[in-house]
Write a sequence for this structure.
């Protein structure tokens, strides 16, 4: 089970990173072609937009895995551990409900674009392929919320990876050198 989880984590990282990297590379290529060679390519912007959106939506489950989503925890930290646990259960459950709606309506959108035969303006990519990221990312996000839900039910403390960094309290305790915070 652990090796499967590691493989899934790696898949998420590679998928999100690849799409974002390709999108950024395409933007660089587009700028180079437009301003250096004075030969703008119309398809570059469209494909770059699609790959960046795919990369961002594939990165959402990665952010949830690492607890990097925005959260307001000023009240949460003051609650007793038992109450925090049930709040984690409730939040994870609501996240799963959101993901179910997101996935379902993403699927509906894909199905409508598939039957309409709609294609993108410059490249001619079928729009159902462009919108396919909605149900895909919804399922991936749902899997991460299920993982968080199980952790909360078991009573495991969900730790923000940012909270794992120890910051010195005194100025004299601060680290020195190029890597000092």
């Amino acid at each position: 089970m652990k090796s499967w989880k590691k493989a899934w984590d790696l898949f998420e990282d590679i998928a999100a990173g690849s799409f974002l990297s390709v999108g950024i590379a395409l933007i660089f290529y587009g700028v180079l072609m437009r301003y250096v060679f004075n030969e703008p390519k119309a398809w570059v912007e469209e494909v770059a937009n699609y790959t960046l959106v795919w990369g961002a939506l594939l990165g959402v489950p990665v952010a949830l895995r690492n607890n990097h989503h925005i959260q307001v925890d000023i009240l949460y930290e003051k609650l007793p551990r038992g109450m925090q646990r049930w709040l984690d259960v409730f939040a994870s459950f609501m996240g799963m409900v959101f993901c179910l709606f997101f996935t379902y309506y993403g699927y509906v959108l894909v199905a409508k674009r598939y039957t309409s035969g709609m294609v993108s303006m410059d490249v001619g990519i079928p729009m159902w392929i462009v919108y396919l990221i909605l149900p895909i990312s919804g399922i991936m996000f749902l899997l991460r919320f299920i993982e968080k839900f199980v952790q909360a039910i078991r009573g495991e403390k969900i730790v923000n990876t940012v909270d794992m960094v120890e910051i010195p309290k005194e100025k004299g305790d601060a680290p020195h050198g190029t890597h000092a915070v």
